[in-house]
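question for whoever is on the cluster today: can someone run the full assembly for these? two chains, 478 residues total. i dont have access anymore since they changed the login thing
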Amino acid sequence: MSKKPIKNKVSSKRNVSKKIVKPLKKSVKKVSVKAGKKIVQEPIVMQPPRGMRDILPNEQEYWNRVRMVLDKEYPKYGFGRIDIPVLEYSNLFIRSIGKGTDLIDKEIYTFVTKGKDKVALRPEITAGVARAFIQHGMNVLPKPVKLFSIGPVYRYDRPQEGRYREHFQANFDIFGEEDSVLDAQLIQLAYRILGALGLKNVQFQVNSIGCPDCRKEYIDMLVSYFESKKKKLCKTCKARLKTNPLRILDCKEDKCVQVSANAPQTVDHLCNGCRDHFKSLLEYLDELELPYAINPQLVRGLDYYTRTVFEIWSTDEEGKKKSLGGGGRYDKLIESLGGEPTPAIGFALGIDRLVLEMKRIKAKSYENPKPRIFIAQLGNLAKKKSLKLFSDLERDGILIAESFGRGSLKSQLRTANRLGVEMTIIIGQKEALDETVIMKNMITGTQETVPQEKVLNAMKKILKSKPMIIKKKKINNI
RNA sequence: GCGGGUAUAGUUCAAUGGUAGAACACCAGUUUGUGGCACUGGUUAUCAGGGUCCGAUUCCCUGUACUCGCCCCA
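^ ran it for u. tokens below:
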């Protein structure tokens, strides 16, 4: 038994370590072409940039479910789908979301293009939808105009569980109605979606931060209150006193929480219009029997919000609260971007977090159908026949698994077994010539030879029966 | 942006100042056209860069990533 290890295969894999594909060091030095300049190749990192990730097939069952529920629900409430670019001019976001917000000051991805355009990856969806609303003159459409969008958003933030630099949001916006009945309806939609996903244990926090008029008065009052207690505030909040005093209410530092507890509350300082608006919202929510908690501390991180704001929280085993989504009214946004004055309200759900939560509570997911039949082949002629048979059956809606590239029947059957199919069609040299196939029952192990033309009906018969429960092995996490 | 922890095969984990083992997974074989079980064999890894050292995967520094917390948010 002389087994010579073949070492000469300069295995390309050698240089393809898991994380890094680096060029051979020698070759790096060799590369020196263009304009006599030495070109050093940067290693390719086998990972996406920080905070970005792949969503692998095994996780798609949850994403599928979310997508299905969203696709089902949004038309019911009269939303039309809109898809907008991931890239917009930076100032769209800066103007709408506002300087002084974390989102703009430290989380937005901006860059200058070759054409010297200042652009940004969208940190949220509403601003772009608002832009599209104005651009396409949607103000002439019958009101309300309801737009649904789904896609990635980007925030340069520190990643941690449930927080990514690229994450996906489902975004709902309603334009053209000021009445809080729309606010209530939107919240109901959010409830619907979460319910359909099996996420029943969520909490809705609502608040009203008033219109610019009453907010201005309120902020003045807030500032004078905090000024008097300035010593007791944390460092960031002292700074916020000048930049964004509303956010002090949101601070989680113990001492700030204590100071905030006695601070004047937005709800107590609304103008008549805003108070009525908020009051009627609560009445509508009661009418719909949607539970909510009024949270006077809730202020939200975007400047464009007016009046109604809300957030959706889930609570985990340890009592930690995570935001699944949030939204609010932005009655002045369209106007501030140069459109006709158009009141509006919207909210977004974080899909990554929905999925995280669904996994946590073991919610129902949706798996794509699995093939229940496998085709194995042996020999060139049989391979051709199998290929044809596969496409014929597929055209009749029959899902087939195969491993055509493999030679031995043994390894094909092994694969068939691992896939948990109930029936394997075997075509060998002999069968290919006879126009027959072997149908092997993978559960009982019995098999019979049948004419090829009978295969389709036989397959249909199998698929009509209930799937047999076969213990299927989990193939790692792919 | 700030602080803590971590970084070894596809996965989960070992070990070591002298270039690394296992389990599961994967590929193949166990008399040549038949899966599961069993047995045998095989492929695959020390995050990157620098420093100390005769020698580092191990020690030190830096970077990067993951993770937890803060901040914030989805």
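summary bc i know u wont read the tokens: The first strand of chain A starts at residue 20 and ends at 21. The radius of gyration of chain A is 30 Å.
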